[in-house]
Every structure is written in structure tokens, then in C-alpha cells.
Amino acid sequence: MNYEPNEEEALDLIIPKYLTSLFYGALVEAVASENGARMQAMDSATSNAEEMISDLTLKYNRARQGSITQELTEIIAGAEAIS
Predict the structure, then answer these.
(1) Burial class of residue 56, CB neighbours in 10 A (0-12, 13-18, 19+)
(2) CB neighbours of 13 closer than 8 A, spacing ≥ 6?
(3) Distance between CA atoms of 3 and 6, rounded to whole angstroms?
(4) pLDDT (tens digit, 9 = 90+) per residue, 11-58?
(5) What does pTM read for this prediction?
(6) Distance (Å, rounded) from C-alpha 5 to C-alpha 60?
(7) Which of 20, 22, 60, 69 has CA 20 to 30 A from 53's CA?
(8) Which of helix, strand or coil describes residue 74?
(9) Helix or strand (DSSP H, E) at 6
């Protein structure tokens, strides 16, 4: 009774498993790379959105302050005209 396979049988068993593991490793690496690229893109988009919000908030506050200043100027001018 011989329980050990010969070299040819061993290679017939090992080579398909080895090739399958290589293919699987490449697939996992590709998916990880794609997810990394997506994370970078989303991080960049988030950063750009935060910068845009900051700029728009500043513009809004300047416009609001200009409106308030104009109203105060009109009130003061009206009060001076009355007195």
C-alpha cells in the first residue's frame, strides 16, 4: 500500500490550486486598489465641498453685512433729515 502520490499526481493537485490562489490574490489586490482610489476621490471631493461652503459662507456674511450697513445709513440719513 502506497499512500504517497507520485510527483505527477502531486503536481496535478498543486498547480491548479496555486494558479487559483494567484488569480484570487490579483483580484483582491485590484479591488483594494479600486477602493483606495475611491476613498482618495471622495476625500478630495469632501475637501473641495468644505472649501466651497467656507467661501460661500464668507460671501453671504459680507452681503448680509453690506445690507445691514445700508439700512443703518438710510436710517441715520432719515433721522438727520428730520432734525
Answers:
(1) exposed
(2) 5
(3) 9
(4) 999 999 999 999 999 999 999 999 999 999 999 999 999 999 999 999
(5) 0.62
(6) 79
(7) 69
(8) helix
(9) none
